[in-house]
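pinned: reference chain
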Amino acid sequence: MHICLNCETGFEGNHCPNCGQKAHVARLNAKALLDEIVHFFTHIEETFFTTSLHFIIKPGITSLNYIEGKRKRYQKPISYFLIWAGLYIVLHNFILRQLHYELILQPVVQSKLQSEANILLRKHFTFFMLPILFFSAAIIWLVLARSRFYFIEIFTIVLYGCGTYFTLLIINDIILGVLFRVNINHYYVFYWQTIISFLYNIWFTADFFRRTKIRKLWLRILFVAILISITGYFVFIYAPVAWIYISH
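pinned: its C-alpha cells
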C-alpha cells in the first residue's frame, strides 16, 4: 500500500488512481531536472513535426482544417508556439555564444537609451513578439476575416503562423550563422528577417483566404502583409525604448 504524496490517497500499484501521480517520486536534483527536460523534448506529440511541415507548405488548408474541427491531427496552437519559440531562443543564443557574434547596429550615433533598448530586445525577443501576435491577428481579422471568422479563430492561426516563423528563423540561423558564418546579430540580418516575415505573411494569408470569396483579395493580402511587417518593425524599434523609459 502506498500513500500518494500529492493527494494523500491510499492505493496499490504504480500510479495514484485519484490524481495519477507516480507511487515513487524521486528527490529533486540535477538529474531529475535533466530527466524532465529530456522527457519534454522526447515526448512532444507526434503531430508536432507534421504540423510544422504543413504550416510551411500549406498553411491555408491546415488552418481551415483546424478551425473546422479537424484538430486531433495537429499540435495544439499554444504549445506549438511555445515549443518553437523556446527552441529558437536556445539555438539562437547557443550560436551567438559559440561563434562569438556580437550585436552590430546601424552606423549611426545612438543615445544611451537606444543602446539599452537594443540589448533589451536581444535578451527578450520572444516577449516583444506578443504584441505583434495581437496586432497581426487584429489586422488580418479587420481587413480580411471579420465577415466569416471570430477574432479568436484568427488569433489561433496567428499563433500557428508565429510559431512557424520561429521555425523559419531557426533555419535562417543555421544556414547563415553556422554554414556561411554570417553574423546573425547584425542589423542587416534583422532586415532580412523582416523580408522573411513579409513573404511568409503573404503566402499564409493567400493560401488561407483564396478559398473564401473576398473582393479585391490580393490587394487586401498585400495591404495586410505590409501592415504586419511595419507593425513588427515599429514594435521592435520603439517598444523596448518605451519599456525602459517607463521603467526608469
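why pinned: Residues 217-247 form the longest helix (31 residues). Residues 44-247 form one domain.
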